[in-house]
Design brief:
mainly alpha; 20 helices; 4 strands; 56% helix
Length: 473
């Protein structure tokens, strides 16, 4: 047998190129050649006793299997397969995938189907069902051991516990303080409606008035407006009466922090009666039953204001014209009255106090503008000196800032052409006033240089041919 195999190999020699592959290493080829020389009839450790053709085929299959095992260690072997004859079938190359990606792959691993996710995307960890699927209400199973017939028709509602006296002020005070900033009564009504005030409902007006007593006049006006808007949707008339009764009893304590509390509470009562949130007989019910001096002063103040309103005087502006909530035309009117009163009295301190009570520091440039226009229209030295003294006093006390002072002067510079139509000497008077303002330190040199002046048409005899005179600054 060995003689026949050797004879066949000598007649049909097999070259190394036919049995090699580019992926097989040189060491493997050398080892294969040694096996061919020493063990002619041995393939993979098995002694073959077949013909030379079968030995040749067995060697080819073993060679192909070794090459396939080597390739599978490199690219996971997804591209190659064996045919029935043992030949290697080359497939499409597939990029190697990590084991983690195989575990997270939600496609079928059997190679069947269209490659879609399992359960139509409704399965897997953290998935609550198919996208867009609506679940019906699950029927109650009466055979469930946890089934309770008494709970089947129960109605569950959110219950807000009522506020006690300790939490009432901590909860409502921030709402009122924020209202003093934005002035929106509807927002306050919505916030109070969300709270379960319970028996503390009648304390809302008294808390609002107590906070307003320590605030500005504009805040008191906002408080009166808030009480009028809350009466009905949130509070009742009886709540208002109980609240003001409590305020009258607490006047001895309120006077310690606010000395003018009796007069202010009386104004609140008069405003409440005028807004029809208190009955007209509220004050009459206290006659002959008042022992406290502060309560008597408060009720007398309210009665006087109501008597004035019956005679035709309105009390809706009893807190003064202050605050940015007032119309611009009304603020301008108040500033003009302030200037006229100052020219007659000459009291700069009173004028400064009235300007502060307006509570419009962003609108002080209008006061400067109206003061300068008054000087231009008066045509008198007395008014010029008094207004200049007032502007100097307000500038030193920083009631009017430098920016507001500058804006007031610049507005006059822009409107001087229109002012000159009514006041022919407006340019000359303005130059005179600006020079004195600079000399007293009210304005700086840069603002003085911006002052416009009207050119004078000169004669031809002066040598310039009638050219209009240029600006002096």
């Amino acid at each position: 047998m060995a003689t026949d195999c050797a004879a066949w190999l000598n007649a049909n020699p097999v070259e190394a190129e036919d049995l090699s592959d580019s992926l097989v290493s040189e060491e493997e080829d050398n080892t294969g050649s040694l096996v061919n020389k020493n063990l002619k009839n041995e393939v993979n450790g098995n002694w073959l006793s077949s013909t030379s053709s079968s030995i040749h085929e067995a060697r080819l299959k073993a060679k192909a299997k070794r090459r396939l095992r080597k390739n599978s260690s490199r690219d996971s072997g997804r591209g190659d397969s064996f045919s029935d004859t043992g030949d290697v079938v080359r497939g499409t190359s597939v990029a190697p995938a990590s084991p983690k990606s195989k575990l997270l792959d939600r496609k079928s691993r059997l190679g069947k189907g269209r490659g879609l996710p399992k359960k139509g995307g409704a399965g897997g960890k953290g998935v609550w069902g198919r996208s867009g699927e609506v679940y019906e209400q699950e029927a109650v199973d009466q055979k469930d051991p946890n089934y309770d017939e008494a709970q089947e028709n129960c109605v569950y509602e959110t219950v807000v516990p009522p506020l006690d006296e300790r939490d009432f002020e901590n909860t409502v005070s921030p709402i009122l303080q924020e209202y003093f900033e934005h002035g929106d009564t509807n927002e306050v009504a919505e916030l109070l409606a969300e709270l379960n005030l319970g028996p503390m409902r009648s304390d809302v007006p008294s808390l609002a008035v107590s906070l307003a007593l320590e605030a500005k006049a504009s805040h008191r006006e906002l408080t009166s407006r808030l009480l009028a808007d809350l009466c009905g949707p949130v509070l009742s008339r009886s709540d208002m009466e109980v609240s003001f009764d409590k305020l009258l009893l607490e006047l001895p304590d309120l006077v310690l922090d606010t000395p003018g509390a009796p007069q202010l509470v009386g104004q609140f009562i008069a405003q409440a009666v005028s807004d029809q949130i208190l009955s007209k007989s509220y004050i009459e019910a206290y006659k002959g039953r008042v022992d406290c001096e502060y309560t008597r002063v408060s009720l007398d103040r309210a009665a006087v204001l109501l008597r004035m309103s019956m005679e035709g005087l309105r009390i809706d502006n009893q807190w003064g014209p202050g605050g940015g909530q007032r119309p611009v035309t009304q603020l301008i009117k108040e500033m003009n009255l302030l200037l006229k009163e100052y020219v007659l009295s000459g009291d700069s301190k009173e004028a400064e106090r009235c300007l502060r009570d307006l509570e419009v520091p962003h609108f002080h440039h209008e006061f400067v503008y109206e003061a300068i226009v008054m000087v231009l229209e008066s045509k008198g030295e007395k008014t010029l000196e008094m207004v200049l003294q007032l502007l100097k006093s307000l500038s030193v006390s920083t009631v009017i800032t430098l920016d507001q002072m500058r804006r007031g002067y610049e507005r006059v510079y822009m409107d001087i052409a229109e002012i000159n139509i009514d006041v022919p000497r407006a340019y000359f008077l303005l130059e005179q006033f600006v020079d004195k303002s600079f000399s007293t330190g009210v304005i700086d040199v840069k603002l003085r240089d911006l002052c416009p002046c009207r050119g004078r048409k000169r004669f031809i005899s002066e040598g310039d041919g009638g050219v209009v005179k240029a600006e002096s600054y």
